[in-house]
Amino acid sequence: MTPSEIHYIAFRKPPLGKRGYDEDDVDDLLERLERFFRDPAGASMTADDVRKAQFRKPPIGKRGYDTGDVDDFLDQVVNEWPQVKTDQSFPGSHRSAS
């Protein structure tokens, strides 16, 4: 995983009528991840922080990011984390914070 891959990741919108994850919440986590992958010694972050991340639903009228896309990408990040076993992933269903 490179900082550029994190920086340039693009997520689809969820299907019409569905609300995904709040874009600002996801973007905030991605910015922290990018900083960490650029300079692990200078940014305090753990794979557990990624596993436990929760995102609000976007405001009414907004669709946000597709939950499956975000969860799949974050699984990939955790699986490539230094000294993290590849079988440590998280179910996407626990990520939504109301």
Describe what you observe in this structure.
The chain has 98 residues and is mainly alpha-helical. The chain has one domain (3-97). It contains four helices and two strands. The longest helix has 16 residues, at 23-38.
Blueprint of the fold:
Elements: H1 3-7, H2 23-38, H3 47-51, E1 55-56, H4 67-79, E2 96-97
Parallel strand pairs: 1-2
The overall average pLDDT, rounded, is 84
**Given the structure, what is the number of helices?**
4
Question: What is the β-strand count?
Answer: 2
Amino-to-carboxy terminus distance: 30 Å
Indicate the low-confidence ranges by residue numbers.
83-94
Total domain count = 1
Taking all Cα atoms into account, the compactness measure Rg is 13 Å
Structural class: mainly alpha
Succession of helices and strands: HHHEHE
Strand content: under 5%
The largest sheet, given as strand count, sense and whether it forms a barrel, is: 2 strands, parallel
Q: Order of strands in the sheet with the most strands?
A: 1-2
State the shape.
elongated
Helical content stands at: 25-40%
